Amino acid sequence: MVADAARSHNPPHAIDLVDVTKMYAGKVHALQGVSMQVRRGEIFGLLGPNGAGKSTLVKIMATIVRPTTASGTILGAPIGHHPTLARVGYLPEHHRFPQYLTGRQCVEFFGAMCLMRRHARRARAAEMLDVVGMGAWGDRRVSTYSKGMQQRTGLAAALVNDPELVILDEPTDGVDPVGRHEIRDVLLAMRDQGRTVFLNSHLLGEVELVCDRVAIMLKGKVERQGSLAELTHESRRWKIVFDGAAPTWISEFGEPSRTTADRSCVEFKSDDIARVQSLIDRLRAEHHAIVGVTETRESLEDLFMRLVRDVDGRSSAVGASNVNSAMRATTGATR
Q1: In which order are the strands placed within the sheet that holds 256-260?
Q2: DSSP 112-155
Q3: Sheet hosting strand 28-39, strand order edge to edge
Q4: N or C: which end of the chain has fewer CB within 10 A?
Q5: Above pLDDT 90, what percent of the chain?
């Protein structure tokens, strides 16, 4: 378990990135000034279409890819501080285990790379294989595993060193619905233990179920960041159903309509709960019984699609931008 005392003097952010950039050969901007804060003890989701720069950012945090420029901290230490990696668990996308090893051997090998003592890594490997539902298969060779079983084993390997921060790159890729549900339970349990989970995924439904906050990346930039409530507050709508005919003053809130011969309803957009309550109070004061109050918001999928589509309703380019192409497009537009 992560020691509470060890975290008591740490800064509030497990990840605090400022102006992270990455330019590849050919002047391709994979990341363009990414700033992102992930609080300790939360599940944070990184979303974006293919080519948005998500995996590049994850690899920079894991010191696999060297950034062009970067400042900030991971668990309070500067980005790239290798001793800090002992406190980080990492599951890369498309990870590969040696096919001749057993799942238990793979997890123990990851523990050895984290400099865990033999007895500790054996005990921890057995525990984590049970947690991810692979205990009965731990002594089978990886070559006999399905894709979902390999993902579960990879998650066990990411947790073997009892990390404070767990970085997961597409952890449910290839996992069936039952497996995804079980992995969600594991992620929620990690949060309850005080760990921080950084989740990179394109499965919006999965992210919406477990994440406390999210960031949406497009073309190497963070377009939005916050909780789902914060990101969708402008789309908050209310539907109130009540007995009797609608009073004339209700048009101040929205256009009323009849649901049945003796019931009416009014729908309106508002982020002010006090305004909703005042409407209910006025209806009750005039002896209208409130039958139902329904709140609706934009889903994460709706928000995501709205951000990745341009004003014409067509999908915008989502990959990394090319400096030369951008300059040509700008020059052509000014001619």
Answers
A1: 256-260, 263-269, 237-243, 290-296
A2: HHTT--HHHHHHHHHHHHHHTT-GGGTTSBGGG--HHHHHHHHH
A3: 77-78, 69-74, 13-24, 28-39, 321-322
A4: C
A5: 53
Please return the burial class of 2, using the count of CB atoms within 10 Å of its CB with bins 0-12, 13-18 and 19+.
middle
CA–CA distances in Å: residue 48 to residues 14, 24, 101: 21, 19, 34
Say if residue 318's pLDDT is above 80: no
The candidate with the shortest Cα–Cα distance to 254, out of 229, 281, 264, is 264
Contacting residues for 222 by C-beta, under 8 A, at least 6 apart: 34, 35, 36, 215, 216
- Give the pair of three-digit tokens for residue 279: 């409407």
Segment among 6-10, 34-38, 154-158, 211-215 with least mean pLDDT: 6-10
In one letter, which amino acid is 113?
A: M
| C-alpha–C-alpha distance, residues 77 and 25, integer Å | 29
* Complete DSSP assignment for 181-233: HHHHHHHHHHHHTT-EEEEE-S-HHHHHHH-SEEEEEETTEEEEEE-HHHHTG
Q: Which residue has the tokens 């997961």?
A: 168
Per-residue DSSP letter, 292: E
When pLDDT is averaged across residues 213-224 and rounded to a whole number, the result is 91
Question: What whole-number distance in Å separates Cα of residue 200 and Cα of residue 203?
Answer: 9
Cβ burial of 208 (10 Å; 0-12, 13-18, 19+) is: middle
Question: Could you give the CA distance from residue 71 to residue 21 in angstroms, rounded to a whole number?
Answer: 10
Identify the helix (H) or strand (E) that includes residue 301: helix 300-308
Do the Cβ atoms of 299 and 273 come closer than 8 Å? no
* Phi, psi torsion values for 217, nearest 5 degrees: -105, 135
